[in-house]
Design goal:
Chain A: This is AAA family ATPase. Chain A: Keywords: ATP-binding, Helicase, Hydrolase, Nucleotide-binding. Chain A: It holds the Pfam family AAA_30. The complex is a heterodimer of chains A (about 425) and B (about 500). With about 425 residues, chain A is α/β, with parallel strands linked by helices. Chain A contains 16 helices and 19 strands. Chain A has helices at about 5-15, 35-45, 60-70, 90-95, 115-120, 140-145, 185-190, 210-220, 245-255, 275-290, 315-325, 335-340, 360-365, 365-370, 385-395, 410-420; strands spanning about 25, 50-55, 80, 100, 110-115, 130-135, 150-160, 200, 205, 225, 235-240, 260-265, 290-295, 300, 310, 330-335, 345-350, 375-385, 425. In chain A, strands 4-3-5-2-6-7-1-8 form an eight-stranded parallel sheet. Chain A has a six-stranded parallel sheet with strand order 16-15-17-18-12-19. In chain A, strands 11-13-14 form a three-stranded antiparallel sheet. In chain A, strand 9, helix 8 (about 210-220) and strand 10 form a beta-alpha-beta unit. Chain B folds into two domains: about 5-320, no CATH class; about 345-450, Beta Barrel (Elongation Factor Tu (Ef-tu), domain 3). Chain B is globular, with a radius of gyration of 27 Å. Chain B has 13 helices and 17 strands. The chains are: A alpha/beta (about 425), B alpha+beta (about 500).
Chain lengths: ~425, ~500
Amino acid sequence: MTPQQEAAAVVDAVLADLPRHRGVVVDSPPGAGKSTLVVKAAGHIAETGEPLMIVAQTNEQVDDLVERLAAEHPDLGVGRLSASGYITPGRILALPNVSVAGKLPDLGDPAVVIATADKWAWIGDRTWPWAIVDEAYQMRSDKLLRIASLFERSLFVGDPGQLDPFSIVDGDRWAGLSWDPVQSAVSVLLRHNPDLPVHRLPVSWRLPASAAPVVSEAFYPFTGFRAGTGPADRSLEFTVNGMRTPFDLALEEAAGSGWALYELPSRHTVRTDAEAVLATASLATRLLQRSPVAHSERGSHPVTADRIAIGAAHRDQVAAIRAAGVPPEITVDTANRLQGREYDVTIVLHPLSGRRDATAFHLESGRLCVLASRHRHACVVVARAGIPELLDAHPSAEPVQLGVPVKFPDGWEANQAVLAHLSKHRVTPDD
Amino acid sequence: MSALTALARLRAVRDGVAQRITTVRHCHISDQPLVLIPLKLAGEAAAPLAAMVGTDPGHPRLLVVPQPRNRDLRFAFAAGLAEVLLPYIEGFEKSTETVERRGGEPYERCLDAPQILVPNRSAASFTGLLGRSTRFRRAEGPYPVHPSVPLLGRWLTYFADRSQQPGSSVLLAATEALSLHWATGQSGLEDANLAALLGWIDPPPGMSGHRAAEEAEDPLLWPPAGPTTDPGFDNEVLAPAIRAYEEAPTDRAVDRVSQALRTQLDPTWRLMWRAVDLLRSLPEGSRVKDRWEIDRGSFTRFVERIAEGSPPQARRDGAVGAAARLAGLERARASYDVQRAHDDPLLMAEYRLTGEAFAGTVIAADPEHSEGEGRSRKLRPLITVRTGDPVRLTPGTVVGSPDRRGHAAEIVEAVDGEITLKITKGMGRGRTPAPGSVPEPGERVSYTSLIDDFQSSAALPGPEQTPWTHGGPPEEYEPGDDDAQEEWL
């Protein structure tokens, strides 16, 4: 089977399962056409004439979905519910079949109503026959608890490899309970309803052939996926010659192989490591100066600043990178906020760079998975040397809780796997 | 560990004495706290061995279980603890105040609430376990206990649960309360040893904190603060005493166990009251009262629950109960962090270091500045502040000021240490700002993005409406004889 056929077969199976079960879960690796599936399923349900509610997690995700729904199904009425502080972006206002309101009655009676999970929690006294919950692995189960009575049947779509939902307080008290409120909505749903069908999208359309096997092996060790394109389908070329600086060498390595590790000398640093921050920002600036052009199955286009992202673990690192001087059109953000986004080239400040301990936060495999799977062409990782040694000195020592299902992948192992691959693409400032 | 705490720890090592990391006290210390030091039997999860308890430093009450493997004796011990604890709690139930609230019925709130102090976090957890093992017991049926035991269990559970609420002071672990205010030259793990921690904070004259902490590690000089006892004491003193009681359960044998345990508890008892004095010597932060008020409200509600005869707290949180508790904890965590920083310039300095706050001098002000025309005209005074802090706030960020309650502003521009702010709240209702509401040039001000604006979450369904995704409605709890048969008790 071609990748296209393989993916289409899964989508058909999902749509066929929808009326047969109370809930259907679809696991989707990065860039596997999750949104496409949501839009397709929405159209499929709307055809039956029954109303549909769609739940996403952030306002950006809702807006993205509204835009795609409106484009794919121009004759479908779409209502977008929003909270009071929300400012409707121009791209949504321009859509003729979309209405925006803070209250359900003000929307008219569209076939599809879409809002964030937080907003849905305030909508009572109506039941929808159908719901689609997007990014369900990023949704905390207590949010699902608040909205589950709104729908009769639901399709849950999400990426199990990305960041787990979190809480600022300690949730150990509930560890092992099947309804643990800090677990993801899907974990809780499946623990109470183990007979629900779980499908997996098998092909990543985003990740290039150079990245799919690495990400699949490190973060999806048992389910796996493959790239929808071959090694020859994607390439990145620079139209301006470099000066053979270490930055140029790193960018050329990334363009040639899809990966580069820009490795600074080993040192324990504060979180906003000035040297690493400067290197990250400089790589981005240099990348633009080299006027890259991306060739892919969709044709060729220059890689402009809006197709580049810089990712880091903490907000203060993001602020520091911004302050170090990055063209404003380049996205600089934390892993949490980059979830679900796609770029041509990403530059990543490694979460463990310069650290002297490997905490659960920094080891969380989802964080690295998000950062390492946003790109269509190449990913440059900036890190201090010594991370494998740090990992060896800090094997995961979290207490084992009774009744908690074992979760894969293990953050420690995933980190080692990615680093092992990156070490083949190492460039240091002395090169 | 934050940069300033790390610095304080280094200074503690250099100077040989713990360093203050706050300028004020962030927890409530009652005028009449009850100190409770529980001990448990080694190798057992919830077998109480002894407790020293009381409100008078000069007259502690010592309770012991001469044979902790005997369950009847354990529950006799619980009845003894209830004799001290319940009258103490009831002492706070009587005097109440009427609280008016907007859009609701006025309600009653106790004027003060009980406060229990235990040595460390393990003692707090053990208090919870003791509550768990006693709250389902009954005065009739199989294995009956004294009627005060299940009531004690519910109160112990209440205190242990409540102690996990950030900012609550109804049950405090002394080591945690002290570490919140002092940084020592030892690790966080070592700080959990009360004697060592107090050695650093308040070393004996002529001795360095480091030396005092080292001395505190000798279990013969400073027996562990519990709940676990020193293994040497267990083997050499306690085991023979218990064996003697086993062979001849006389008053003399009980005395022997009591005397042995008293040697283990007395030093910690004195340490606990020293900790109380040290904490009392700190000036109280301005929002500590607000948080104690919430504690008083929570205490009053629990008193009412018991008076209504509602069942004991469930063994495990149900789906809805867990979500509700999580929402409450998150809300408390967020506002506790904000309140402490606003109360304490030293804590705010941490945020200034990370760029989330800044302090500086006003260099320009336009108090009459407004936005919009006609009816939608809004007063939006502008001020410019010069600061040397590494500010990392982007335009549009909403900020508050620790010096002015109810004051809010928005960052307009931040370049080269000059920050322009637009004041959006706290100027009064007039066409011109209320006097003093807009900082004047030359005034020293501070602002932070750390504001208490936690959005409350939507209502949860009732437990009887738990949806299918979360396992459906739970079975209702029926007290029964099975409760007394629990194997692990």
